[in-house]
Amino acid sequence: MSKKKKLLWGIASFLLAGLTIRMVFKFSKGVSVSRVIDAVIISDKRWLFLGVVASAMYVWLEGVALRIILNAAGHKTSNINGLLYSTSDIYFSAITPSATGGQPASAFFMIRDGISVGVTTAALVLNLMMYTIAIVVLGIIAIIIKPSAFIEFSGISKALIIIGFIVLSVLSLIFFLILKEGKHFFRKIEELIFALNKKGIIKDVKKLISRLKKAGDDYGKCLDLIEGNNKMVLKVFVCAFFQRASQIVVPMLLFISLGGKLKDAPLIFSKQCLMTIGYNFVPIPGAMGVSDYLMLDGFTRVMERVMAFRIEMLSRGITFYICVALSGIITLIGYIAGKDRNHIVADKQKDNEQNVVDKQKDNN
């Protein structure tokens, strides 16, 4: 996306966040910011702390999954790089429609670190596929744990959950086909480049085709590695599964911290699994509004209204607003630090080139 579009989406996301929070408090009937703060004060800090840790694990585990794929492809990456790939994905997914923001941002940092376009593409597609499958699996587990979790939603929420399950299942299949038929994808791009060349839109075809073929070769090599490494694929799925679970478990931990009974914890977890399916496919930054509706609809049916609103506000505050803000800060620091590093590398290369030229002059 262009800088202008990113700025517009950022502003729209900020306004949408403000509107969502305002509407939540408007319909909360007596719940205010001060009461939410009071809830934090009186909460059991041990469970609250576990909620914060779980939210942090959500960010960390995505980086771990990407590092597993990249390391297997021969690109050794550090924990810091993995964290940057994760935070950039999370931040831009939150301020833009999820299909257009996070993945390209993560790809930007990977390519900047010297990882080829083909390997980057394969890694992101595999990670996204496992991430999507993990949500569906958690939804199935939720139904097995507490069949009543789905029944206790309203008609609108049930419809969103059913649609979400279908959409995410189809997306998982699409990602699988992209991985399996990726070479056809690169061939179609090549055909498009030649078509645009005939119309005079693209001129330097040889250079583009050369880069495209290299990316396709890298993609093919990475795909061969994935197909022949079931252990690596399983590790990525495990990371994706616990990544999603670490975020989904936060409302349950907050429920216990605010005095909820342990015996009801599985029900809260199961409901949150289904809520996640219900809003994950919605093309709205952070699914703001939809996720809040689902949480309030699901929780107010199993607990007091005031407690449901407190959990919703605290949970969204920890897992979304604070998480996105910190991800944005880390991404910005990583971008600036990388920019400086690139300048240093470029300066060293120029110095080396100049030294070679000076030596040739001396020899002559």
Summed up, what is this model?
With about 375 residues, the chain is an all-alpha fold. It contains 15 helices and no strands.
Characteristics:
364 residues; mainly alpha; 15 helices; elongated
Q: If you had to describe this structure to a student in words, what would you say it looks like?
A:
The chain contains 15 helices and no strands. It is elongated, with a radius of gyration of 24 Å. Helix 3 packs parallel to helix 15, helix 8 (155-180) crosses helix 13 (265-280) and helix 14 runs antiparallel to helix 15 (305-363). With 364 residues, the protein is mainly α. It has helices spanning 3-26, 33-42, 45-72, 79-95, 102-112, 117-145, 148-151, 155-180, 182-198, 205-227, 230-248, 250-257, 265-280, 290-299, 305-363.
Helix and strand arrangement:
Elements: H1 3-26, H2 33-42, H3 45-72, H4 79-95, H5 102-112, H6 117-145, H7 148-151, H8 155-180, H9 182-198, H10 205-227, H11 230-248, H12 250-257, H13 265-280, H14 290-299, H15 305-363
Strand content: under 5%
Helix-strand pattern, N to C? HHHHHHHHHHHHHHH
- Counting helices, strands and paired strands, the structural category is mainly alpha
Q: Characterize the overall form.
A: elongated
Q: What summary fits the major beta sheet?
A: none
The helix tally amounts to 15
Q: Specify the helix fraction band.
A: over 70%
